[in-house]
Write a structure and sequence with these properties.
By secondary structure, this protein is an alpha/beta fold. The protein folds into 3 domains: 115 residues, no CATH class; 132 residues, Rossmann fold; 166 residues, Dihydrodipicolinate Reductase, domain 2 (2-Layer Sandwich). It is 31% helix and 22% strand. It contains 12 helices and 20 strands. The strands form 3 sheets. Strands 6-7-8-5-4-9-10-11 form an 8-stranded mixed β-sheet, sandwiched between helices. Strands 12, 13, 14, 15, 16, 17, 18 and 19 form an 8-stranded mixed β-sheet that branches. A 4-stranded mixed β-sheet has the order 2-1-3-20. Helix 6 links the parallel strand 4 and strand 5. It is globular, with a radius of gyration of 23 Å.
Length: 493
């Protein structure tokens, strides 16, 4: 039985003034933090409508609740989610991802005659009493390269280390540039002009070429090419190597990594060639078999494919064009200089630069049903991060703005793709508002245009951070570190 208002909760007498109410909710958020951390170290990841709660501050937790209330138009607050977290903290749970927002909302609107404790138990019933780890032992990870994506991957791997029995970053491979190389790289890790400082500690052990990051010992290996390295000499075995240099994209080049002792699988942080499968995490994971090498496609492909898939499944895409308004990249020139590609030699900081993108063709590799239906191009613009995909689509039938936005909002909050598809209904957002957003792409519903069967969608994406989150998800998939997701009920009101 559905309820029009969430009247199942029993609220204490709340202060009548806004400041008092804020302080009350703030106190609840403060009490959540140690419980979230303790549960996380037992390999249980708590989410709020797809947003990870671990390592968030009190204000960030409160803002996450506010965003859900404004976007979902429900009354979800810290009071409801606090009760769910308390109930979960009293259970002995196995490794999983648990969305406390979905559980709390379901309890508010579904009358099952249960207490909150019993409702939570019912929602995670088969998880109770299964405490342990998914992997038999921690999975060794090696980063080959330490540029923009490599450093963000390092942040995410360290932050996602849990109880220490998941993915474990063991080494970073780079070419030695100058004296004091290690200190310079550590400083680039500590500070970031776009993403801000690293929320943790980094200690440099120069005499051992080692970084100790939040207690994780990470060896820095200096080498000119992959074949020079025997990883077993550093105690690294059966490792997943993530190549973020972009130097090699074919089987021959990437296969060099596999010939090294200690490496068993390779993930490329770019579109792969020569029959290597390109995976958009969450979309075509099912084609992964015993592949020793996989590509993660491009940031743009990852941003647009989830939205294209759900739209095509529901409305059938007849044809379309994707225009990527993309932040400038490291291969462009700061001032005018020679460049082997057309237009890219002109100053990235001063110009909008039309260039090609392979995203249109790449969509067909991931979603074969869209082969030949899409074209794509890109414009590089003078911003350092966050890009925008403009999707001009012809659908299989007439639709309305309300219909397509409601559909995408539902997918963003209640589907298996809520980690990939984000959603905002604010008419005031701009690109910098999405710095650090982990979604592959975020629907700007206030900008949606519809005319009959023609639809124009604006999809924001942090081309660094959102893409890196996709990489991390794919890395986990490659080594079998796949968490069960709870609750099992897929849609709530």
């Amino acid at each position: 039985m559905k309820k029009e208002q969430p009247d199942q909760r029993i609220r204490p007498e709340l202060p009548k003034d806004p400041f008092g109410d804020f302080q009350y909710r703030q106190a609840l958020a403060e009490e959540m933090l140690p419980m979230i951390g303790r549960i996380y170290r037992d390999n249980v990841h708590l989410l709020l409508y797809g947003k990870p709660l671990v390592n968030l501050s009190v204000s960030e937790i409160m803002n996450a609740h506010r965003f859900v209330r404004e976007t979902e138009n429900n009354e979800l607050s810290e009071f409801e989610t606090y009760q769910v977290i308390v109930a979960l903290s009293q259970l002995e749970l196995g490794p999983a991802e648990i969305d406390i927002g979905i559980i709390a909302a379901a309890y508010l609107f579904e009358d099952k005659g249960l207490s909150i404790d019993d409702f939570v138990k019912e929602s995670v019933n088969d998880l109770i009493g299964t405490k342990g780890s998914i992997l038999e032992k921690a999975q060794d990870v090696v980063l080959y390269g330490f540029g923009r994506i490599g450093r963000l991957l390092t942040r995410m791997l360290i932050e996602d280390s849990g109880g220490g029995d998941n993915l474990r970053l063991r080494a970073i491979v780079v070419r030695k540039a100058v004296e004091g190389d290690l200190i310079k790289r550590a400083n680039l890790m500590r500070t970031d002009s776009v993403h801000g400082p690293f929320k943790g500690t980094i200690r440099v052990v120069e005499e051992e070429d080692k970084l100790i990051i939040n207690g994780n010992e990470v060896k820095v290996i200096y080498a000119s090419n992959p074949s020079d390295i025997d990883y077993t000499e550093y105690g690294i075995n059966n490792a997943l190597l993530i190549d973020n240099t972009g130097v090699w994209r074919n089987k021959e080049g990437l296969g060099t990594h596999l010939n090294c002792n200690g490496i068993s699988k390779v993930l490329l942080t770019a579109p792969a060639k020569e029959g290597i499968k390109n995976i958009v995490h969450g979309i075509n994971n099912e084609i992964i078999e015993d592949d020793s090498i996989l590509g993660a496609a491009s940031c743009t492909t990852n941003a647009i494919v989830p939205t294209l898939k759900v739209l095509n499944d529901e409305f059938s895409i007849v044809a379309g064009h994707i225009e990527s308004v993309h932040s400038y990249t490291n291969d462009q020139n700061l001032i005018d200089n020679f460049h082997k590609k057309e237009r890219r030699g002109r100053s990235a900081a001063l110009n909008m630069v039309i260039t090609e993108t392979g995203a249109g063709k790449a969509v067909g590799q991931v979603l074969p049903e869209l082969i030949g239906k899409l074209t794509a191009n890109a414009v590089r613009v003078p911003t350092p991060n966050v890009s925008l995909a403009i999707m001009n689509l012809q659908l299989g039938r007439d639709i309305t703005v309300e219909e397509v936005n409601d559909f995408l909002r539902q997918k963003a909050f209640h589907s298996d793709l809520k980690e990939q598809i984000g959603f905002t209904n604010s008419p005031e957002v701009v690109s910098t508002d999405f710095v650090g957003d982990r979604h592959a792409g975020i629907i700007d519903s206030a900008a949606t245009l519809v005319n009959g069967d023609k639809c124009v969608l604006y999809v924001w994406y942090d081309n660094e951070y959102g893409y890196t989150a996709q990489l991390l998800g794919l890395a986990k998939e490659m080594v079998g570190l796949t968490y069960k997701r709870y609750p099992n009920f897929s849609e709530t009101s």
